[in-house]
Amino acid sequence: MINQSIVSRLKEISSIALDKVFDHKVEPDKLIINQTKKEFDGNYTLVLFPFAKALRKGLPEIGSALSEYLTSLDEIKSCGVVAGFLNMEIESSEWKKELQIIAEDIQFGSLASIGEKIMIEFSSPNTNKPLHLGHIRNILLGHSCARIYEALGYEVVETQVINDRGIAVCKSMYAWQEFGNGDTPEKSKKKGDHFVGKYYVAYNDALKEEYANFQASEDGKKFMASKIKAEQSEEVFWSSYKNAYFNEQSEIGKATKEMLLKWEAGDPETLALWKKLNDWVYSGFEQTYRTLGVNFTKNYYESDTYKLGKEAVDTYLKKGLFIKEADGSVWIDLEDAGMDKKLVLRSDGTSVYMTQDIGTARKRYEEFKTNKMVYVVGDEQNYHFKVLFEILKQMEEPYADGLYHLSYGMVELPTGKMKSREGTVVDADDLMQEVIDEAKNAALEHGELEDASPEEKAEIYRKVGLAALKFQLIRVNPKKKMVFDPKESVDMQGTTGPYVQNAYVRIQSILRKMGKGAIEQLGNEYELKEEEKELIILMSSYPEILKEAGSSFDPSIVASFGYSLAKSFHKFYHECSVLNAESEQAKNFRLLLIEQVARLLDKSMSILGIEMPQRM
Fold first, then answer.
1. What does the alpha-carbon distance between residue 591 and residue 613 come to, in Å, rounded to a whole number?
2. Angle at 254 between CA 249 and CA 255, to 5 degrees
3. Is residue 422 predicted with pLDDT exceeding 60?
4. Nearest to 573 by CA among 497, 486, 507, 488
5. Distance of CA 496 to the CA centre of its chain
6. Closest-CA residue to 270 (of 163, 127, 174)
7. Nearest to residue 597, comparing CAs of 9, 150, 102?
8. To which H or E segment does residue 374 belong?
9. 290-313 residues labelled b (16+ CB within 10 A) or e (exposed)
10. Angle, alpha carbons 228-233-238 (nearest 5°)
11. Dist. CA 277–CA 268, nearest whole Å
């Protein structure tokens, strides 16, 4: 078993057993072997149900015959059959071999390059406001999936489409031009994205004031009297007319739309203003990304991509895939695929988001030749991506079978959406600072860092606070909605990042005092405790954990692994003394064991973007 993990070897010998005992050939990878449930004796369980029909025998008979063969092998200490499950207990010598495999494999859990690429798109913010809480969940999911696929041997291309154009961006531009008086982020000592976001809020405030004044004016009252329905109250009428007012009567709205038309026409002055504000925002975004430990291989900008896709639509219109209506608009009929008709070009020839996404996907393939593309976008866009993927499939794009929408649910705070300095969303920078402050308060409460320098303390607070934020947002299955509680996230006893970090820190403290264990001193006489076996079983599962997390695009599986390993270590720590071990063999074994536990805690948390402190 020295060159294979325990599970791989058990699958191999179980496959041989089926062949020897029943003359029934099954590939090892087709066998199901899980960890034995805690209420039963054993370490690993072979699922017998799939063999009953093929062997035409009862499950007890199959289990009994396999048990007799398996217990004759050096690796298996005992077997027990419970219903359709064969529970196997492993010999102590095999646990030591498994620990040796883990200790000697520097890249344990990671694969060498498999020569494939995967592109993951995440974040993709708007340039009219700062990043917020929803962006953080998006970013962490995308970044974690990128690290998982790197560990699985892929070349990963991390990208974002920055939404840097349109009426929303022009709103910030208009407000700065009207109310800014030449102010800059440097003068006001604000991050660039917060600075621009302030003017987006100011714009909406100005529009609200203009609308209120119109409602109170004689012209407004006359207009309402001519349009209001008999069953409508004044409040309902004005609420329903708000968007139409912006488009039809608002002077602010008119000026903003004129600015957008100038931008589209390439007016130099408007483009210069647009570039100035966007550059401020990009500078702010970069600071937030650096704090989160995130970067991108390539950025795409909507100001470039919005024209893409038209050529593809023209080509496939000629091929009959798309349909042109009498008004000149172009559609695709997806009713045969269980969807409806979808617009891909407006009657005036302008593109819609679907057109842009078609063109962007084709451009990315042209640039990176990646057959797998993952879009990390909230679940409100589920139908959009279902349609997009079907269109690309019908266009017979070479990457169409490798498209995946990593859909995720909304995230809020316990109080719902809180006020931030930029308006009504939960600001990313404020939230990161809040969890770092919570980590600091927790440390001061426990008094653990009194002898550390101010710089060392600040670095520990940062690592612990961001671990709290990242772990809490990742540990929930992406498809579920969730509530993020900053105070709960730093709890050392909860299902939290700091809880996992605490296990790592405790191990480092032991290793600093006692040194490391030696592989060559692993003896065969020492009989392992159950807590030690449990740690090895968990560590052995790490390669499969990564594969499962990758295939399901679910980093919460890695978070769960890290928490389970930390929890098992804490149990081991209380039950099995390292300092006062019953023998030198036990001490050496435990030192080597906990060193590998720390290594896999570090590796798994690194996948999630979490850094480990040496103390806390």
1. 20
2. 145
3. no
4. 507
5. 16
6. 174
7. 102
8. strand 373-378
9. eebebebeebbbbbbbbebbbebb
10. 65
11. 14
Task: List pLDDT tens digits, range 332-369.
Answer: 999 999 999 999 999 988 889 999 999 999 999 999 99
Q: Is 221 helix (H, G, I), strand (E, B) or coil?
A: helix
- φ and ψ of 351, to 5 deg: -85, 160
pLDDT tens digits, one per residue of 499-558: 999 999 999 999 999 999 887 777 667 889 999 999 999 999 999 999 999 999 999 999
Q: In what order do the strands lie in the sheet with 155-162?
A: 298-301, 155-162, 117-121, 373-378, 403-408
Helices 192-216/218-227 angle, 10° precision: 80
What angle in degrees, to the nearest 10, is found between the helix axes of 251-265 and 234-248? 30
Q: How many CA atoms lie within 13 A of 556 on its CB side?
A: 16
Helices within 475-528 (DSSP H only): 486-489, 497-514
Contact 329/342 with Cβ under 8 angstroms? no
Which residues is 531 bridged to in the sheet?
none
Of 430, 444, 431, 427, residue with least CA distance to 470? 431
Task: Give the C-alpha distances (Å, rounded to integers) separating 182 from 277, 282, 285, 314, 421.
Answer: 12, 19, 22, 45, 21
CB count within 10 Å of CB 345 equals 22
Mean of the per-residue pLDDT values of the chain? 94
CA distances from 44 to 40, 472, 545 (A): 10, 30, 16
- What pTM value is reported for the model? 0.91
| Overall average pLDDT of the 60-85 stretch | 96
User: How far does Cα 461 stand from its chain's mean position?
Assistant: 23
DSSP β-ladder status, 117-121 and 155-162: parallel
Name the CA dihedral angle for 168, 174, 175, 177, rounded to a multiple of 10 degrees.
150
- The Cα 171–Cα 199 span in angstroms is 8
Strand ranges in 99-192 using DSSP code E only, listed in sequence order: 117-121, 155-162
Cβ neighbours of residue 414 closer than 8 Å, sequence gap 6 or more: 483, 485
CA distance 188 to 207: 24
CA distance linking residue 105 with residue 4, whole number of Å:
11
| Residue 276 confidence (pLDDT) | 98
Contacts of 488 (CB under 8 A, 6+ apart): 472, 494, 496
Residues 6+ apart with CB under 8 A from 467: 497, 498, 500, 501, 605, 610, 611
- Please provide residue 501's backbone torsions phi and psi, each rounded to the nearest 5 degrees: -60, -40
User: Which amino acid, one-letter code, is at 187?
Assistant: K
Helices within 152-191 (DSSP H only): 167-179, 185-188
